[in-house]
Amino acid sequence: MIKKIFLLLNILLFLLFSVNVSLKAENEELVQENKNEKGEEFDLNEMIMHHIKDAHEWQILEYHNSKGVETSVIVPLPIILIANGQFDIFLSNQFEHGNKIVEKGNNKYILHHEKIYLANEAGELDVEKTENGEGKILNEKPWDFSITKNVASMLLVSVIVLLIFITVAKSYKKHPGRPKGIQAFLEPVILFVRDDIIYPCLGERTSKFLPYLLTVFFFIIFNNLMGIIPFFPGNANATGNIAVTLTLALFTFIAINVFGNKHYWKHTFWMPGVPVFVKPILAIVELIGIIVKPVALTIRLFANITAGHIIILSLVGLIFLFKFAMAPVSFIFVLFMDCLELLVAFLQAYIFTMLSALFIGISTEPHHH
Fold first, then answer.
1. Taking the C-alpha atoms of 332, 333, 339 and 345 in order, what is their torsion angle to the nearest 10 degrees?
2. 220, exposed or middle or buried, with CB in 10 Å at 0-12, 13-18, 19+?
3. What's phi and psi for 271, nearest 5 deg?
4. Residue ranges of the domains in the chain?
């Protein structure tokens, strides 16, 4: 069943976006060869940042043909922009890896380091040199609603989760007493999340928040696992993007404060049994605590996933830095880190769900005399 789901999703993705083979100009390749002949060192930092950052295209593979021309097989993703009262939609392959300006009506767009800018009248970027020697781009940015690699990966994960759990739900209707197939595989995980993570924090209120917390748990796990897969349709760093983890944390933040009862708010801003002159101080401290909760959820998930990817990419980069002399050692350490990343993928989903349940449980706890 899982194989059929993945096959169907891959076919749909290819039909929607169409695989694009992009050839870079031969003169650019010759320039790169000249740089290598001069002894330019491999930039490990650039390689790592390139792989962990979001992108406007989904790279499948990259190779050099017999002529030495670099060939990239990519899935172009939709670019959706609003600028100067104009709504523009096109595919990212029109940028040709940032080597070409895209003109749509009165707007000219430039892709620079995966950020889209409006070009000036000459079709270029206005760059101002700063004190540290770096260039500051002065061009305006359009409103960017593009489907980036991380967004496409999350949409793919959402479809996978929906298909899996719709299948499980149908299986429960057909075989309520004897789980089969994927139902039998997922039932222990679902029961573990419900009975060992959520129920100890929420008690009788478990059923009210169970759908949200189960969704968060499996959404994070599937995105973490997709990020570990080094080839298409994996290799996206969705949960290593702070915007994604912040959004997940904000949903928990909303649940905490919307469903928080009057006793929670009373103990937050006017704690009983405390001298009056101390209450304003405690109220400020508690207010900071309310803000810190989603921040802690955001940074914990983002930092752990990103750190794992950086370590693995650093170990792979050692192979190129030391001219393959470190290949055997790097391979062993990368294999170990991949196994550790599998553990972290589940652990971070567990921690995020547990803390969300704990924070919600505190805000909805009935008053006890």
1. -150
2. buried
3. -60, 125
4. 78-146, 150-364
CB proximity list for 71: less than 8 A, separation 6 or greater: 21, 22, 23, 24, 62, 63, 64, 65
- For residue 144, the number of C-alpha atoms closer than 13 Å in the C-beta half-sphere is 19
- Cis peptide bond N-terminal to 142, omega within 30: no
d(CA 26, CA 294): 50
Give the distance from CA 76 to its chain's centroid: 18
Question: In terms of DSSP bridges, do strands 86-91 and 70-76 run parallel, antiparallel, or are they unpaired?
Answer: unpaired
Q: Tell me: the pLDDT tens digits for 182-221? A: 888 888 999 999 999 999 999 888 999 999 999 999 999 9
Give residue for tokens 């740089």.
35
As given in the structure block, the two tokens for residue 22 are 């992009």
- The two counts, helices (H) then strands (E), for the chain are 11, 11
Nearest CA-CA partner of 245 in 176, 303, 202, 326 = 303
Q: What is the pTM of this model?
A: 0.81
